[in-house]
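Question (not urgent): is this output format expected?
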Amino acid sequence: MESYYFSMITQIGGRRRPPKLYIEEWMKTVPGLDRKRLAERMGVSPGTITKKLSDPSKIDALWMVLFAEGLGLEDVTDLFRDPNAPTRDDLLRGLDDKQRQDVVDYVDFVRQRTGTDG
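Got this back:
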């Protein structure tokens, strides 16, 4: 049975692949963290971690919170971001005030046109 989170995505937008979760990539950023140690941090068995990672459609919002906490992430949305990719702050860091304002204006424009918040 699909999790509520992903079944809602399917109902709303048709048959789509679940968004990519970068759990294993985040694991590599923590020295010595393997599935067994992550399982210990999360209070579950290593087999459960293996099952969840082999079928990400079974990872619902509660599991995302558990994974984020186990990985030491402050924000669960980081699971959707490759830890090796630059952050928004990284991308904005070197811009002068005018360039930064241009980016903000563009994002506002896109949000208005698409009706989204991100």
